[in-house]
Amino acid sequence: MNPELEAQLRLSVNFPSPPGVAARIIELAQDPGIEMGKIAKAVSMDSALTMKILRIANSPLYAQRRKSESLRQALVVLGLNATLTLALSFSLVKSLRGGKANGLDYPRYWRRALLAATAARALADALHEPEAEEFFLAGLLQDVGMLALDRALPTLYRQTETLPREHAALAEYERQRIGSDHADVGACAMRAWHFPERLCQAIANSHRITLAGDSGAGSMLERCVALSGPIAELFLDDAPLRPFAETALCVERSIGLDKIAFGRVLATIGDIIPETEGLFDTTLLSKQHADLILDQAREVLMIRSLQVLRDINTFKTVAEDSYSRSLNLEEETRRDALTGVYNRAYLDQFLAREFEQSTRRRWPLSLAFADLDNFKAINDTYGHQAGDRILQTTVRILRDNTRDADLIARYGGEEFVVVLPTTDADTARRICERIVAAVHATTHPIGPAQAHVTISIGCATHEPQAAFADPAEFIKAADQALYAAKSRGRNRAVPFDREIPKAMPRFA
Q1: Residue ranges making up the domain that contains 189
Q2: The CATH number of the domain where 466 resides is what?
Q3: How far apart are CA 494 and CA 115, in angstroms?
Q4: For residues 322 and 176, which has the higher predicted lDDT (pLDDT)?
Q5: Helix ranges restricted to H, 366-424
Q6: Which of 309, 311, 308 is nearest to 350 (CA)?
Q7: pLDDT tens-digit series, residues 407-416
Q8: 212 CB-near residues (< 8 Å, 6+ apart)
Q9: Tens digit of pLDDT for each residue in 296-350?
Q10: Which one of 288, 309, 330 terminates a domain?
Q11: Count of the separate structural domains present in the chain
């Protein structure tokens, strides 16, 4: 850290001495032979802290059959390390929240800090890390440097209209203004307070999300803390700005939790939020707001395939020009020249990969087989140019009513296949019905005339309780459902039913 800045911090902030009972707890934590009685005595000096320790020992986080009636019983339930860590969390928050803000948005700061701490703990639980409370504490304190900077430099955070909210951008703003950022300042404060080096490192690297396989990847604690901030912002940002899929990809690449596990982490955070609010006497989110966020997360994480997002994610390196040209050429060979969607050859590759992933990870995969009903008659009547325009319009409708990670391919003349990764049967049915309605509502101007086509769709879902043997059987099932849609009057979507007579398929 800049020595001049450090000197200014020492003059302006209660730095480096931690406040209140926190100092005694930190001192106890340095003693490898600490006894339970000494911890109980230190905690009991603060009656509010005692009640919080009792409450958390009896909370669902430590689901015990027998209620802890005394502080000593609670300490036995929690254990020495967990008690010290939690007591330190409570006492530090109580002391630090008492300061007066200059330019910092204190309500948002503390909401983010507590949400990040909750997220770090939820990640630790998902990974079966033994010291989950340590993850909570590091997540809670990762931005403590902002409190110090706000007190030492009162104007730093006052440009509220232009101040970045996303913390990586905020750190860059700080470095431009003062030559350091709040992660560095926070780590410096924690070292001055004699925090364990692993916690200081987690705070120092809290803006650095690393890949698990990188040579410079930090400890699991560091990686979870770095992820906890972006996860907290999912709960704080406005709906259109919540990058659930992108954050899920970061989690998978950094700590190995796939998007299904990440969805469970978000649900865990939603469950823990009320307990965190009670323990820290604050309001983070309304129940309705939290439920809406989790519903949105489930929708996004269910319908987006991270396999496809890997091609556009932030970890993708920029290739050399010659390599980029070869990639573009390769991409062109995958596309249908007329409609721009993928061709049948690439469909086979993509479907094989998604089918294998679905089978191995036991998540659903749906496939829609679509055919324009009266296309041939219009094509014969008005000519191929009119038919080509109808096909191109149909592709636009398919794109408008599917998701970024869904793959659309032209299967034959007027036939299309849509692969819907991580999509269950109900969601797939709704998507197909939406496509049918959109095609039905569209008219196609052809000279002075208006042509009208409809679409029939058969849909099948590969999932553990209704699995197919291989991709060929899977696509055959969707084709059988398409034939059923045709036979029932067309202009409809029909899900695959194993009772559909096998004599009916038109699959070749």
Answers
A1: 3-12+100-309
A2: 3.30.70.270
A3: 44
A4: 176
A5: 375-382, 384-400
A6: 308
A7: 999 998 899 9
A8: 223, 253, 254, 255, 256
A9: 777 667 544 444 444 434 444 443 444 344 445 555 678 888 999 999 988 999 9
A10: 309
A11: 2
Q: 421 phi and psi, to 5 degrees?
A: -65, 150
Interval 423-443 mean pLDDT: 91
Q: Are residues 299 and 370 in the same domain?
A: no
Looking at the structure, tell me whether residues 111 and 212 fall in a common domain: yes
Q: Per the domain annotation, does 504 fall within a domain? A: no
Per-residue pLDDT, 157: 85
Q: What distance in Å separates the CA atoms of residue 56 and residue 76, rounded to the nearest whole number?
A: 12
Residue 67, class by beta-carbon neighbours within 10 Å (0-12 exposed, 13-18 middle, 19+ buried)?
A: exposed
User: How do residues 156-169 score in pLDDT, each as one tens digit?
Assistant: 888 766 677 777 78
Q: Say if strands 443-446 and 449-452 run parallel, antiparallel, or are unpaired.
A: antiparallel
Phi, psi of 23 (to 5 degrees): -60, -40
The answer as to whether 286 is a domain residue is yes
Q: Above pLDDT 70, what percent of the chain?
A: 81
Give the three-state DSSP class for 448: coil
Answer whether residue 248 is part of any domain.
yes
SS3 percent helix, strand, coil of the chain, rounded to 5, is 60, 10, 30
DSSP SS3 for 116 = helix
Within 8 A by CB and 6+ apart from 145, the residues are 181, 182, 183, 184, 185, 186, 187, 188, 189, 203
Q: 345, 411 in Cβ contact below 8 A? A: no
Which one of 291, 309, 327 terminates a domain?
Answer: 309
Both tokens of 21, joined, read 């009972």
Percentage of the chain with pLDDT > 90? Answer: 24
Identify the CA nearest to 167 among candidates 241, 125, 112, 107.
Answer: 112
Residues paired with 455 in a beta bridge:
372
What's the confidence (pLDDT) of residue 306?
A: 42
Q: For the chain, how many residues are written?
A: 508
Residues 211 and 278 both lie in one domain: yes
**Residue 72 within a domain:** no
Q: Which among 15, 13, 70 is positioned nearest to 37, based on CA atoms?
A: 70
Residues 159/107, Cβ–Cβ less than 8 Å = no
Average pLDDT, the chain: 80
Both 371 and 302 in a single domain? no
